[in-house]
Specification:
Layout: H1 15-66, E1 70-78, E2 84-93, E3 120-122, E4 126-127, E5 132-140, E6 143-145, E7 153-157, E8 167-173, E9 185-190, E10 197-201
Antiparallel strand pairs: 1-2, 1-7, 2-3, 2-4, 5-6, 5-8, 8-9, 9-10
Length: 217
């Protein structure tokens, strides 16, 4: 006796299944772009804070090597197109170290080409990443001042590797307006004793009290 085998045809998607799938995909498209944008904004914020820390460390090292004070200026400046930017720049001298009295092997004065007169030079402004601004600067617990075009903030590193005074500066992302302020802000602190800079999340503060061995120059 001959047995017949029923053939199974592949089942297609129903209209309801297709509509559900399209709805899910549409919802994902609405959710993913804002999250990607927030990720990018957070990345720019962290990069800006890292850059500030690197600039401070570099200024301190330059002061030690040059044997002269080096300054870092935080400010808001206007470019040639009239747009305002938040940025920082280095202020240093053209006369590194003290004029040496040592002679080279051939008897020539190695310092003969060094300038005799001290002059202060400024680097070009280095902007913070897009959407990131300086939210304020502080030298004491709970006291914050705004950095503006008319009110820049300048800090000085000394040749012995110290810093004129401890301070904190906040960077904030304007692209994360729908996020709590403490979640869109990073605080960079410079220790008054070690002159080293570090970054912390949120609205960091200077120490409320100081130890007896802490002092300001």
């Amino acid at each position: 006796m001959r047995t017949s085998h029923a053939t199974t045809r592949p089942r297609g998607f129903t209209l309801v299944e297709l509509m559900v799938t399209m709805f899910i995909l549409g919802s994902l498209l609405l959710i993913v772009p804002p999250n990607l944008y927030r990720f990018g904004a957070r990345s720019r914020l962290e990069n800006s804070a890292s850059t500030v820390v690197a600039v401070l460390a570099g200024a301190r090292e330059q002061a030690i090597q040059d044997g002269h004070t080096v300054k870092v200026e935080f400010g808001v400046y206007e470019d040639t197109d009239g747009e305002l930017h938040h940025g920082h720049r280095i202020i240093f001298t053209n006369l590194p170290a003290e004029r040496s009295k040592l002679l080279s092997e051939d008897g020539d004065d190695e310092d003969r080409d060094r300038p005799d007169q001290l002059e202060w030079l400024e680097t070009s402004w280095h902007n913070l990443s897009g959407g990131v601004v300086y939210a304020g600067v502080s030298e004491r617990y709970g006291q914050w001042n705004k950095i503006s075009q008319d009110r820049p903030y300048i800090i000085t590193f000394t040749p012995d590797g110290g810093v004129e005074k401890g301070f904190a500066v906040r960077v904030e992302s304007e692209d994360l307006e729908d996020v709590k302020k403490e979640n869109r802000t990073l605080t960079i602190k410079v220790n008054p004793l070690t002159a080293e800079a570090s970054t912390s999340d949120g609205l960091g503060e200077m120490a409320e009290t100081r130890e007896e061995n802490e002092f300001q120059k």
